[in-house]
Task: structure prediction
Amino acid sequence: MTTGATVHRPVLLKETLEALMVHRSGRYIDANLGGGGHTEAILTASSPDGVVLGIDADAQAIAATRERLAAFGERLRTFHGSSARLSEAADAVDFDAVDGVIFDLGLSSDQLVDQTRGFGIRAGGTLDLRFDVSRGESAADLLALLDVRELQAIFRNYGEEPHATRIARAIVAARATTPITTSEQLSALVEAALPKRYGPPSRIHPATRVFQALRIAVNDELGALRIALAATLSRLSVGGRVAVLTYHSLEDRIVKQAFAAAVRGCICPPRAPACACGLQPTLRLVNKKPITASPEEIAENPRSRSAKLRVAERLAAAA
Ligand SMILES: C[S@@+](CC[C@H](N)C(=O)[O-])C[C@H]1O[C@@H](n2cnc3c(N)ncnc32)[C@H](O)[C@@H]1O
Result:
């Protein structure tokens, strides 16, 4: 791989570009820059003078993508930090109002294959799982510090893991003799803690839910998403669009509910005789059902299998 290159293949690329109605001179925010696949397409479609602000918590991803997309010059602006800081990032480049915001949640294939991060259960490596390695606690830190109840809550709430308690107990027992610091150690421990499975082996690794849960906890992914979506709604210009690609039901539920609340506007109790809050709808849904990948895309890029794309458009404030 040459420097700045990416192995990540952007998901639902054509659909996302269409959804955002990308045009020349537009201003866009990519809240999950990653390998820059979506950003590159937006920069190309908004030629010659569209600008993209790319945000990523992963400094390595920003550096590599800046290098890869250097030909776009000042049309690509970047911000290193959580998407929860979207307002601050937009202020830093004087983006008062933007024409579109894209979220492509979770992790990239570049992170998955990096053995220093521990994201890939099969790739193995140091059990870090932070997007931003310059701050916060790693997954190994959480496994060393939290008690059974706290670990179980993470596995249940963020991984929907049915054997959360068993796994939490196994971790606390194992760490009494050896600290759990690698992906290999954790996945072996989870496998051993689970009840024996009968039937054909699954394509999904048995530790997948536990890894997902730890990653979400370490990066406060759901908290960041809620804040970033709220910030997006206040930055979108009238007619501007937000497109969100999610990969599991916890993320998708947050997006669906945030969009639904903005579409409804009014927050008065359903049985109130008249609206007293005065809040108006701020969004309209562009697609009622989420867009999903075609069988061809799934065959070519298995990561797209679980993707859901939701799109909404900013409405004018009522007079
Ligand atoms: C699926 S990848 C994006 C891939 C990108 N669309 C592409 O085509 O190459 C998700 C990226 O978002 C970043 N990320 C995840 N959660 C984040 C958050 N809360 N704040 C900032 N960046 C985040 C990850 O570091 C990763 O690089």
Notes: Residues 65 and 134 are 19 Å apart (CA to CA). The pocket of S-adenosylmethionine is lined by residues 8, 10, 32, 34-38, 55-58, 61, 82-83, 104, 106-108, 131, 219, 221, 224 (CB under 6 Å). Residues 112-219 form a domain with the DNA polymerase; domain 1 fold (CATH 1.10.150.170). Residues 249-264 form the longest helix (16 residues).
